[in-house]
Design brief:
Strand content of chain B: under 5%
Oligomer: heterotrimer
CATH superfamily of the largest domain in chain C: MetI-like
Distance between the termini of chain B: 28 Å
CATH architecture of the largest domain in chain B: Orthogonal Bundle
Largest interface: B-C, 98 and 98 residues
Radius of gyration of chain C: 26 Å
Shape of chain B: globular
Strand content of chain C: under 5%
Chains: A alpha+beta (362), B mainly alpha (297), C mainly alpha (312)
Distance between the termini of chain C: 32 Å
Helix content of chain B: 55-70%
Number of helices of chain B: 14
Order of helices and strands of chain C: HHHHEEHHHHHHHHHHH
């Protein structure tokens, strides 16, 4: 049985939020297309949860407009916005059974009994919850409670799903499993979803679009690979991708062979022929660990190994190169020990340069 | 932590001893209610060596008249004043029960509504309001009882059950509001938010979500309100003439001609029973809730 | 929220059935605290303001026997009260009573709570029994202790004499210096269980981890108690102290029943003094004394809340 599910876009225009006199969001503009899965990504305190709650109607809007389905909903109560939300702590109704938790919204609208029954069972079947519909929240595991929270949202049949860091209370393995489930659910239902998290892996794996936020501002907006391969500034570059991108301070110098990066600690790193920076300019050189490779060519840089970590498929090399600490990830077996010297070479087309003063990409 | 067996034994002994010490006055009192005066008013305390009698209970609970009793006994029973029927106390017990239950109900309704607002809603002057509510408790009893006399008399509520119910509910309000607020504080605000997103109004969220989740707190507060009403003396004294709650009734046993210790101990003992049953029923919740919210950060 | 909105959100059948409920829902739907606070506030205002206002009015007037009416005398009653040695004596007695009872009830309450906070069999019963004193009407408590402290027939007097702390000729309640202790005994007996309940609840809510860590770190029982338990219970204790202190300061029942303020004025607390004056017909002065009690309580409570940052 296929449910008729409405889809709508969400738009934020110049959203400003103040707590007292203290501004928390500084003019956010976003257009979220129909049926997209958008992730608000950022460190704690960047304002992503506040933004989500303003979309939900749980926080007052200090300035700007929130539009859902093309209509301004600023003054509307949460119940009138046709949204559903999954909370970080699930917020289940402890005194009601799982079935009743999911049926609550329909009971409030005085829906017919058989319709309630139908919809709850439909949602339960999608999430694989049929076996514990009669149980109470306190009898359930974390993952099961998570499902109930999602089931409750599913039953609402909303225009927009809102997720507020729903997986942060689960253990690592469960988190991975739930991630896949949520994504599969989205593919199946196609409902517009806005998902808040500080975990960049969640963002990368689940999003159609990522909105990277910091200190109440949008740092970058784009598809996951765009964010990964073309970060707009140092913050985004270091926030997305783990282990984090190697960032080295230094200057552009040149020699006969073309521009070269001279790190503060003395190391010299290659640059592509064409760079959007002047000779002598202070820059920050960025190269992801996975884009470094072992090399014996002359153009490679010397590095002294500090620490070796193996994750199974990969080997993480932590080393000192020209006074700077760097990390490299290789997939070959390497027979080396801390203290040994190796040579590393970055992939030329994966080098990032950032202006040292502004942090912006060059 | 592991402890030696003798340490545990010592601990148990100590606990029992302490509880016994605290129970002793009550035990002594109840014992006295079964004693003839000859066993009470002696220089050396009598524990078991006396002829137990139910005479005191016969008069206060069963309504036996004292003259009939005196005749029956063929001599003095004790005390020197009053006819038997005026010591009959079942009406007092019923009055106390009715007033306690109704005033507790009234108090809880008003208090939970106010507590919800104090717990959930942000508004200016909230802390001042809370202090103002608390300060209601700061007037000396006399200064409250006398004006109550005037107000209630003018309202025609004096010596009525309704008047007493209102008065007791009123005096309990401050504590009930504070207690219920702290219980509601323990329920995360996100649950309200989830309910409101699910389509509930504030009232629906309050009635169908938050209230059921603080059932334990309600029980604890109910117990405290009940006990207060059950034991309250001054205001009840001022506001009634024909209705006599138990404490007031007991005070009438202290007459200008003498103190009817026998009846006092009997009624006092009988009065403990309903209240204690009530406490036993909700003791678990009472202990759990009395942190008054201060353990949550 | 508009009428249209609320109409849209409830099914047609509901409208016809419960118009009152709909009205209430509409009123209570906003986030404004007014409707929620109104019933309780109204009641407190109606019945609570009057005693206050009346007392203030009384304290500013004097009953003129000749004209048989009240005449305004401004601060006269207040000046009289503030220079009345007996008032200051009563204040002193009340303060002593409050401080000592509070200290004893706190210490005993905590100690007994620690003692009874075990999950072994039977301790639940013990904890339940411990609450029994709370259930006795204060007036009856007073009578209980009156009987037990009686000079001739009191069981406590008997054992007191045996232990050498009391003399037959001078029962505790007849002793000028120590009668207050007799009254305090009744209070401590009745209200220590209240403290026990509060501390039990507080102990229950304490997290286990710090204690386990301390045990591993080598702290002994006393150190754990002094450096962990006590500070962590501080917040619970603060609220309990506040509520209890307010009630202790207004004590009346025990004094009324046990000593009548005596011997002399040895146990005359402020509330009782006010009551005595009241029975002589001097309502104005009684009201003044009562207001002084109120003012002291408000000031001290405020200071306490600020100082210890008590949050409700």
């Amino acid at each position: 049985m296929r449910e008729e599910i409405a889809v709508a876009s969400v738009a934020l225009r110049n959203i400003v939020k103040r707590f007292g006199v203290h501004p928390v969001l500084h003019g956010i503009n976003l257009e979220i297309p129909d049926g997209a899965f958008v992730v608000l990504l950022g460190p704690s305190g960047c304002g992503k949860s506040t933004l989500l709650r303003m979309i939900a109607g749980l926080e007052e809007i200090s300035g700007g407009d929130v539009l859902i389905g093309g209509e301004v909903v600023n003054g509307r109560r949460p119940r009138d916005r046709n949204i559903a939300m999954v909370f970080q702590n699930y917020s289940l109704y402890a005194h009601m059974s799982v079935f009743e938790n999911m049926a609550f919204s329909m009971r409030l609208r005085h829906c017919a009994k058989d319709e309630i029954e139908r919809k709850v069972r439909w949602a339960a079947s999608i999430l694989g919850m049929e076996s514990y519909l009669g149980r109470y929240p306190r009898q359930l595991s974390g993952g099961q409670r998570q499902r109930v929270a999602m089931g409750r949202a599913l039953v609402r049949d909303p225009e927009v799903f809102l997720f507020d860091e729903p997986l942060s209370n689960l253990d690592a393995q469960l988190r991975v499993a739930m991630r896949t489930e949520i994504k599969a659910l989205h593919q199946r239902l196609g409902t517009t979803s806005i998902y808040v998290t500080h975990d960049q892996i969640e963002a990368m794996t689940m999003a159609d679009q990522i909105v990277v936020m910091r200190d109440g501002k949008v740092e970058q907006l784009g598809a996951p690979m765009d964010i990964y391969e073309r970060p707009a500034n140092i913050f985004v570059a270091s926030f997305v991708g783990a282990p984090a991108m190697n960032l080295l301070r230094g200057r552009i110098e040149g020699d006969d062979g073309g521009p070269v990066f001279a790190a503060e600690g003395g190391g010299r790193w290659p640059l592509p022929r064409e760079v959007a920076a002047r000779r002598g300019q202070s820059v920050v050189y960025g190269i992801r660990p996975e884009d470094l490779a072992l090399s014996s060519e002359a153009e490679s840089t010397e590095a002294t190994i500090s620490l070796l970590e193996t994750t199974g498929p990969e080997l993480h090399i932590y080393a000192q190169a020209g006074g700077a600490a760097i990390c490299g990830i290789i997939r070959e077996r390497l027979d080396a020990k801390p203290g040994q010297v190796i040579r590393l070479r970055p992939q030329i087309d994966r080098i990032h340069l950032f202006d040292a003063a502004t942090g912006g990409a060059l | 932590m592991t402890r030696a067996r003798w340490q545990n034994l010592l601990h148990d002994l100590g606990a029992c001893l302490v509880v016994f010490v605290f129970l002793f006055p009550i035990l002594w009192w109840v014992l006295a209610s079964f004693k003839p005066y000859s066993a009470i008013f002696v220089p050396q305390p009598v524990f078991v060596d006396f002829a137990a009698t139910t005479a005191n209970y016969d008069v206060t609970i069963l309504g036996q008249s004292r003259t009939a009793q005196a005749l029956e006994q063929g001599g003095q029973v004790g005390g020197t004043a009053g006819g038997g029927s005026s010591y009959y106390s079942i009406p007092s017990i019923l009055d106390s029960l009715v007033v306690a239950v109704l005033s507790t109900a009234l108090c809880l309704v008003l208090a939970t509504l106010a507590a919800y607002a104090l717990s959930r809603l942000r508004f200016a002057g909230k802390d001042h309001y809370v202090f103002w509510v608390l300060s209601q408790r700061m007037m000396p009893p006399i200064a409250v009882a006398i004006p109550f006399f005037f107000i209630f008399r003018d309202l025609g509520l004096r010596d009525t059950h309704l008047g007493l119910v209102i008065a007791h509910a009123l005096v309990n309000l401050p504590l009930a509001v504070l207690l219920m607020k702290s219980f509601m504080d323990d329920v995360p605000k996100e649950v309200d938010e989830a309910a409101m997103i699910d389509g509930a109004t504030r009232l629906q969220s309050f009635a169908r979500v938050v209230l059921p989740m603080v059932r334990g707190g309600l029980a604890a507060t109910a117990v405290l309100c009940f006990i207060f009403s059950w034991t309250e003396f001054l205001v009840s004294l001022q506001l009634t003439t024909s209705i006599r709650t138990i404490p007031v009734k007991i005070s009438t046993f202290v007459t200008s001609t003498g103190t009817e210790w026998g009846f006092i101990t009997a009624l006092g003992s009988a009065a403990m029973v309903p209240a204690f049953i009530f406490i036993l029923l909700v003791q678990r919740h009472l202990v759990r809730g009395l942190t008054l919210g201060s353990m949550k950060d | 929220m508009s009428v249209a909105d609320s109409a849209r959100s409830s099914a047609p059948a509901d409208l016809a059935r419960q118009p009152v409920r709909r009205f209430l829902a509409r009123v209570l739907v906003s986030d404004h605290p007014f409707p929620w606070l109104f019933p309780a506030t109204a009641m407190i205002l109606a019945f609570g303001i009057y005693p206050l206002v009346y007392s203030i009015w009384l304290s500013l007037h004097e009953w003129n026997r000749f004209t048989r009416s009240f005449s305004f005398v401004g601060g006269e009653q207040w000046a009289k009260a503030l220079t009345d040695p007996r008032m200051w004596h009563a204040l002193g007695v009340t303060t002593t009573y409050t401080v000592v009872c509070l200290a004893v009830e706190l210490a005993l309450g905590l100690g007994i709570a620690l003692l009874l906070d075990r999950d072994r069999r039977g301790y639940g019963v013990l904890r339940g029994l411990m609450t029994l004193p709370l259930v006795v009407p204060p007036a009856v408590t007073g009578l209980m202790f009156l009987l037990m402290l009686d000079g001739q027939f009191g069981v406590l007097t008997y054992y007191g004499v045996m232990l050498g702390i009391l003399e037959r000729a001078q029962p505790l309640l007849g002793h000028t210096s120590f009668a207050l202790f007799g009254v305090m005994l009744a209070d401590v007996w009745q209200w220590t269980p209240f403290m026990v309940l509060i501390f039990l609840a507080g102990l229950r809510a304490l997290p286990k981890d710090p204690f386990e860590a301390a045990a591993i770190d080598g702290a002994n029982a006393f150190q754990i108690f002094w450096r962990l338990t006590v500070p962590m219970l501080g917040r619970v204790a603060a609220v309990a102290i506040l509520i209890r202190a307010i009630d202790l300061f207004r004590i009346y029942d025990y004094v009324y029943v046990m000593t009548g303020g005596g011997p002399g004025t040895a146990t005359e607390v402020l509330s009782f003094y006010a009551g005595r004056i009241f029975t002589t017909g001097n309502f104005s002065y009684a009201a003044t004394i009562s207001l002084i009690t109120l003012v002291v309580l408000i000031v001290v409570a405020n200071l306490f809340i600020r100082l210890f940052r008590v949050r409700f």
